[in-house]
Write a sequence for this structure.
């Protein structure tokens, strides 16, 4: 049984490791900010709070609970939100966006752990209160973990499987002792766990769809709900945490509204009219050509460009290695050579994109252009023999074509690689030794993806390869990707500066046949599993960097993804009424730190 209650004196007497309370914890090294820090570096601590903001999102919602399966496709934005902030529910700790992976006090004022991270203890802030005035307690924390284990969705439902003992320590502390399934990232993840009010939740009905406003500890309460259309939040004037260092300069509006739209084009029209206050833009073509409306000309709308220090991530065509055709690495490699990035970038995107060469490009974690050092080679051991020598020594680069769409030199190389995989051109068709044509389907989910797939299809036809393109609706796309019923799809792999457990879902052998996982390529390679373990068990920043670089090399050598492109900037258009800090943190612009300048 997980719930065991011991008095603090008894726990110490029995030999538990004594630990000093910490104001913050970092995945590697020490927190950058001292115990007496006043605020994060990327906020305006003197901002005058008030006014309002309206966000716009594409989608809908029919449920206000973000922690259950019934909310996954119908998201109530703002309740628990990485972009707008956790307006209603809060976590034990808060992540600094100016450090790779460092957490500071929020509901938990301090933290205790040992060097080996066999346990973590959260000591609650005595000021922490729910919006009804009742205190946030250790019982609330334990209740939250147990409730989400029983009724919540993944990943919340899995957390207690890593715990051998959860215990209440004194009146305001909860300690988690981990089992052998946990790793060094586990206590960090526990710090980001949401805390729910035990006195205001009926566990029997928790997993049912509900539009009843929820009780939280956060800076806002729900004011109005229009199902599927909008949610309006109003500031809680009695918010307990407004003056703690991690919250200074944040949550600056009296009212926040999130409006829902069926299409992005409709959302953008609402922004042009002034109904929406901020529009993050991820399309180079749209950013360059769509802002010739009066509000931009008059200065009522401002276009901002931000330079974050985040890795590029990986966006590309993903080969489903569960299919016999794509179990052949030479087929994957040969097909990857055929896509003419230079032609597509020039013809479709006016040269706006950069070719992606690594899962962690633009960061120190990337292997691109960096030879493996002694630390990496030692870590890899015999695995290094599975890595392309050019990737291992940092000289590998995807081919650059003449942008004609038919670069003979590159196509000749592709033919040679496909020949090594058992395919050759026979009567104008690429086929195997038995005469079976090389053919497959590219499944897409929208017009932009379809455009890219058609460009790839065009190049493939040059070598007699038959690729069909099929665009399906959202429900069919979700169903087919959940069951891995596809040949090739387009996917984005978001790469952070602190990769960890999420890599298990993307690339581990255990995830390959787990329906609904993110194992889009279906990789089942013990060498990849070992590389992920190296990341999860690294104890120093140097070992961690070496582990991610070697892992990057292994994934690139596997040719599971045909790398496409990325942009190294963030683009946001905003109503000039909105102010923002001058400082841009490691992770780029932070909407919760913006404010309404019209407030007098």
């Amino acid at each position: 049984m997980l719930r065991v209650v011991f008095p603090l004196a008894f726990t110490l007497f029995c030999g538990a490791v004594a630990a000093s309370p910490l104001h913050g914890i970092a995945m590697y090294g020490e927190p950058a900010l001292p115990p007496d820090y006043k605020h994060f570096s990327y906020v305006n601590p003197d901002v005058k709070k008030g006014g309002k903001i309206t966000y716009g999102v594409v989608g809908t919602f029919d449920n206000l609970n973000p922690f259950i399966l019934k909310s996954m496709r119908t998201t109530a934005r703002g309740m628990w939100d990485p972009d707008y902030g956790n307006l209603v529910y809060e976590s034990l700790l808060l992540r600094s966006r100016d450090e790779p992976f460092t957490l500071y006090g929020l509901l938990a004022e301090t933290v205790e752990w040992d060097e080996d991270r066999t346990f973590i203890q959260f000591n609650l802030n005595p000021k922490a209160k729910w919006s009804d005035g009742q205190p946030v307690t250790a019982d609330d924390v334990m209740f939250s973990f147990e409730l989400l284990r029983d009724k919540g969705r993944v990943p919340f439902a899995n957390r207690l499987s890593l715990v051998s003992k959860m215990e209440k320590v004194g009146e305001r502390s909860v300690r988690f002792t981990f089992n052998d399934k946990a790793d060094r990232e586990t206590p960090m993840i526990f710090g980001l766990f949401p805390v729910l009010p035990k006195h205001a939740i009926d566990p029997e009905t928790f997993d049912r769809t509900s539009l009843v406003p929820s009780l939280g500890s956060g800076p806002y309460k729900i004011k109005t709900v229009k199902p599927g259309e909008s949610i309006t939040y109003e500031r809680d004037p009695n918010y307990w945490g407004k003056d703690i260092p991690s919250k200074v300069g944040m949550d600056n509006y009296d009212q926040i509204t999130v409006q829902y739209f069926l299409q992005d084009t409709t959302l953008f029209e609402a922004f042009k009219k002034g109904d929406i206050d901020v529009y993050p833009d991820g399309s180079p073509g749209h950013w360059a050509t769509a802002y010739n409306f009066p509000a931009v000309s008059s200065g009522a709308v401002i276009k901002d460009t931000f330079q974050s220090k985040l890795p590029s991530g990986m966006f590309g065509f993903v080969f489903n290695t569960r299919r016999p055709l794509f179990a052949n690495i030479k087929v994957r490699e040969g097909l990857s050579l055929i896509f003419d990035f230079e032609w597509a970038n020039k013809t479709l995107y006016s040269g706006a994109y950069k070719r992606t060469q690594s899962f962690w490009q633009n960061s120190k974690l990337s292997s691109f252009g960096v030879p493996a050092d002694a630390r990496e080679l030692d870590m890899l051991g015999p695995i290094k023999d599975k890595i392309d020598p050019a990737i291992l020594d940092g000289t590998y680069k995807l081919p650059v074509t003449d942008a004609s769409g038919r670069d003979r030199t590159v196509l000749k190389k592709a033919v040679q690689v496909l020949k090594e995989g058992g395919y050759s051109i026979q009567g104008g068709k690429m086929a195997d030794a038995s005469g079976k044509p090389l053919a497959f389907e590219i499944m897409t989910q929208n017009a932009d993806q379809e455009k890219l797939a058609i460009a790839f299809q065009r190049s493939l036809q040059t070598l007699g390869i038959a690729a069909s393109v099929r665009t399906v609706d959202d429900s069919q796309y979700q169903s087919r990707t959940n069951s891995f019923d596809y040949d090739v799809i387009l996917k984005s792999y978001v790469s952070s500066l602190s990769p960890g457990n999420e890599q298990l879902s993307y690339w581990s052998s255990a995830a390959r046949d787990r329906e609904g996982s993110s194992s889009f390529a279906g990789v089942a390679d013990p060498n990849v599993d070992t590389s992920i373990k190296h990341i999860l068990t690294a104890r120093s920043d140097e070992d961690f960097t070496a582990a991610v670089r070697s892992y990057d090399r292994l994934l690139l050598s596997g040719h599971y993804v045909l790398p496409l492109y990325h942009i190294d900037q963030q683009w946001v258009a905003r109503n000039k009424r909105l102010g923002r800090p001058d400082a841009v943190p490691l992770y780029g612009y932070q909407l919760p730190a913006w404010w309404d300048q019209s407030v007098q």
About this structure: The radius of gyration is 26 Å. The chain is about 25% helix and 20% strand. The first helix runs from residue 8 to 13. The chain has a mean pLDDT of 94.
